Amino acid sequence: MSWWVVKHVDAEGPALIGTIMTERGIEYTVVAAASGVPLPPADAVTGLVVLGGPVDAWGDVAHPHMRAERELIAECLERNIPVLGVCLGAQLLAASQGCAVYRGPVAELGAGEVTATEAGQPIFGPDRIQVVHWHTDTFDLPVGAVLLASSNLYRNQAFRFGSGLGVQFHVELTPAQQPMLDAHMPAGTAPSAQVLARVAEDGRRILETFFDEAS
Questions:
Q1: Separation of CA 203 from chain center
Q2: Nearest CA to 70 among 96, 103, 91, 44?
Q3: Bridge partners of 7?
């Protein structure tokens, strides 16, 4: 048994998430969702990380693997297995409970901030958090989910549901990912290395807290 990381974009990886897992001696396997490699059964998973991508969380016709991802997330939650959903991963976490995922009012791209709710302060802290936004979709929260953070444009930025933590934004990015962001984000939206250093600082605190709780 090990942690599994599901990715949807070849150029993206677990970044700071993987660094922290390695530092903690956590073994993990990265699988590309569209590669045809089967996802593991939930009973073979110690923890699950689902990364972002430009895919519709309910887009089963164009991307048949989305159903398998939703089902794996749902079963992990039923078994109280830790799940971290980032961007699309947060949308899939909500969709695994039957929630709608839909286009938001405007694209949220580049360097930005989110503010923790009172319930979110134990993991995010009392101050605004420096993040990277890279999404056009949003989602409804599952019944019983706890809202943890919001931005000016999107209310549902982070939530907890059972053993799952969903974050619509990115805090796993570091200056090492700047070339990838420059190459793949819309022109003029990729954050600078200085911004990414601050994102990584906040991100390390948040991710360390998640793995502390997961252990």
A1: 12
A2: 96
A3: 32
Of the candidates 30, 33, 38, 27, which has an alpha carbon nearest to the alpha carbon of residue 1? 27
Taking the complete model, does pTM exceed 0.90, yes or no? yes
42 vs 40: CA distance, rounded Å: 6
Q: What number of residues does the chain have?
A: 215
**Token representation of residue 13:** 């990886």
Q: What is the pLDDT of residues 65-78, one digit of tens each?
A: 999 999 999 999 99
Q: How far apart are CA 43 and CA 116, in angstroms?
A: 33
Q: What is d(CA 104, CA 85) in angstroms, rounded to the nearest whole number?
A: 19
Count Cβ atoms within 10 A of the Cβ of residue 84 and give its class: 0-12 exposed, 13-18 middle, 19 or more buried: buried
Encoded tokens for 58: 């309910």
Percent with pLDDT over 70 in the chain: 100
Neighbours of 165 (CB within 10 A): 25
